[in-house]
Design brief:
The protein is mainly alpha-helical and about 325 residues long. The protein has helices spanning about 20-30, 45-50, 55-70, 90-100, 105, 110-120, 125-130, 130-140, 155-170, 215-225, 240-255, 255-265, 270-295, 300-325; strands at about 5-10, 35-45, 80-85, 145, 180. The chain folds into two domains: about 5-180 and about 300-325, Rossmann fold (3-Layer(aba) Sandwich); about 205-290, Orthogonal Bundle (Tyrosyl-Transfer RNA Synthetase). Strand 4 (about 145), helix 9 and strand 5 (about 180) form a beta-alpha-beta unit.
Length: about 325
């Protein structure tokens, strides 16, 4: 617990452009958490390099993501927004935790299997031990809670296992994190294949709405969204394309599914797709305007990067020093 509040940790990778799914699924839900929690929001750039990155592009995307956090409404004074790579304790604790993690545990990680299949020419040790770095991220700040999606549950479970294993040997060192169950947002699916989740890595540019898409692009993509042929706006598993659009419109307008279906009763898909596009564009435009404003003030963003790295480093070093002492590493002469 920090400053009288429980601690919450989360982060996103600096790869690809964030999608509407990232916004409704995570970023939008983060905005009010600082009232209840001491929040650490990380740009997880060390995780990003498990896959080969263009150096200049990675730096550009990392800064763009941090700026987007702020533009979306995360206040950098109330929330600690920082680069993972600027707090060396992440990597140091990861090495120590590697020595308390079993190969069998890592072999069971489904994300490793999925990513190894996609990047068969670069199955590196970092990709294999990715969950240990994620455990270090979480445990470094004595995180009480961690927001997790379905694809991250395994990683939180292994973080809990590592913490409990370490604590059983050395005493009460780590807080064992719990999953954060907040407002359940709609799962946003691909506009071109509503059977799969909207993804920033989808090869079909029309499948995803990116937070950087201008209004014309947003509306064009929604007009091309896959639906069906009966032209009825009903919320049904048998109509995945329309169900997805209803979920998106509901999330964008804060209307219930029932209210959305009633609003468009008797109207066709053309009218509905246009309305969804306009609703989403109206949410994204203020964020894009704020990003443009922030990009003009380099000194302001640089100050946030510096100050929050120092703040994160202060709390991270307290945990790391405790761990180092417990396992018997020589004390540093300062």
């Amino acid at each position: 617990m920090l400053d009288g509040k429980k601690t919450l940790f989360s982060g996103m990778q600096a790869t690809g452009n964030l999608t509407l799914g990232n916004y409704f699924g995570a970023l939008n839900n983060w905005l009010t958490l600082n009232e209840e929690y001491q929040c650490f929001y990380c740009v997880v750039d060390l995780h990003s390099i498990t896959i080969r990155q263009d150096p200049a592009e990675l730096r550009k995307r990392a800064r763009a993501l941090l700026t987007l956090y702020i533009a979306a409404g995360l206040e950098p004074v109330k929330n600690c927004i920082y680069y993972q790579s600027h707090v060396s304790e992440h990597a140091e604790l990861c090495w120590i935790l590697n020595c308390f993690t079993y190969m069998g545990e890592l072999n069971r990680m489904t994300q490793f299997k999925d990513k190894a299949a996609k990047h068969s020419d670069n199955i590196n040790a970092g990709l294999f031990t990715y969950p240990v770095l994620m455990a270090a991220d979480i445990l470094l700040f004595q995180s009480d809670v961690v927001p997790v999606g379905a694809d991250q549950k395994q990683h939180l479970e292994i973080a809990r296992d590592i913490a409990e294993r370490f604590n059983s040997i050395y005493g009460d060192v780590f807080t064992v994190p719990q999953p954060y169950i907040g407002k359940v947002g709609a799962k946003i699916m691909s506009l071109q294949d509503p059977a799969k989740k909207m993804s920033k890595s989808d090869e079909n540019a029309n499948a995803s709405i990116f937070l950087t898409d201008n209004p014309d692009t947003v509306i064009r993509k929604f007009k091309r969204a896959v639906t069906d042929s009966d032209n009825q706006i009903l919320y049904s598993e048998d109509k995945p394309g329309i169900k997805n659009l209803i979920d998106i419109y509901s999330s964008a307008t804060n209307k219930t599914v029932e209210e959305v279906v009633k609003e468009f009763d008797g109207k066709g898909y053309g009218d509905f797709k246009l309305a969804v596009g306009e609703a989403v564009a109206s949410i994204l435009k203020p964020i894009q305007n704020k990003v443009e404003e922030l990009n003009k003030d380099k000194a302001y963003i640089d100050g946030i990067i510096k100050d929050n790295a120092e703040k994160a480093g202060y709390f991270a070093s307290k945990t790391l020093h405790k761990v180092q002492k417990k396992i018997g590493l020589p004390e540093r002469i300062r």
